[in-house]
Design brief:
Elements lengths: L3 E4 L4 E5 L3 E6 L2 E7 H11 L4 E8 L2 E8 L2 E5 L5 H7 L20 H27 L2 H14 L9 H10 L15 E5 L15 E5 H6 L9
Antiparallel strand pairs: 1-7, 2-3, 3-4, 5-6, 6-7, 8-9
């Protein structure tokens, strides 16, 4: 039998220094990642469950899911569909302090960024609802047309995204902290060849050339 249980917020926390962060669940370290990756996971979790690891209790290890901004503990046989069903009546949790831009000290800038985040989330949720309401025949026609008109963006990273990323990452490699601008470059967290966007700041980070050479072509990097 599939079991899905929401973990109360008091038992988990993302600790951040605005560059790297650590996820603790029941005082256990679940993962250590750049803050950009946590923001990326949080945003995606508003639309679909993200399995992010497992944690240990007295009776064994259990999968850990992130969905709607909440953490969910499950039995091993649980699928993402099971998590969606269990969380159907749970309100999404949005916490501005979890976002990378919370490090800005200007309250008006924080307000603008929070409004933008909420608007983007609203659009994504509306799109998801609309897509689910369409008939299978209409979905097939839409998919075929999307391929013909080239919906996919290109590898080019727009200047506004570059500025956004440099400010957020404070001019340092997110993997090792290197600040030498001669060896810094922009890196895709999720490879463009695997569907990662070049126009989404949450999918772009600063990385130094040595770190990027070591990094394999995996969605979440080599760390």
């Amino acid at each position: 039998m599939a079991h899905v249980l929401r973990i109360p917020l008091k038992y988990w926390k993302w600790y951040s220094n605005y560059l790297f962060g650590t996820l603790l669940v029941y005082a256990q370290v679940i993962m250590m990642r750049p803050d950009t990756m946590w923001s990326f996971l949080l945003r995606n979790s508003m639309l679909r469950p993200e399995r992010i690891g497992q944690f240990r209790l007295d009776n064994g290890f259990f999968p850990l899911w992130l969905y709607k901004g909440h953490l969910w503990a499950t039995s091993k046989e649980v699928t993402s569909e099971d998590v969606v069903k269990k969380a159907a009546k749970t309100k999404p949790r949005y916490n501005a302090k979890d976002q990378w831009w919370w490090g800005f000290t200007d309250p008006s800038l924080r307000g603008l960024m929070e409004n933008m985040d909420r608007a983007m989330l609203g659009l994504k949720q509306k799109h998801e609802q609309t897509w689910k309401s369409l008939s299978p025949q209409y979905k097939r026609r839409t998919r075929s047309k999307a391929g013909q008109i080239g919906v996919r963006d290109n590898r080019h990273i727009p200047q506004w995204v570059k500025i956004h990323v440099v400010l957020r990452d404070e001019g340092r490699c997110v993997y090792c902290g290197e600040s030498n601008i001669k060896i810094l470059e922009f890196d895709h967290l999720k490879a463009w060849s695997k569907g990662g966007s070049s126009k989404d700041p949450l999918n772009i980070c600063l990385g130094c050339k040595p770190c990027n050479r070591k990094k394999s072509d995996k969605d979440w990097g080599w760390m």
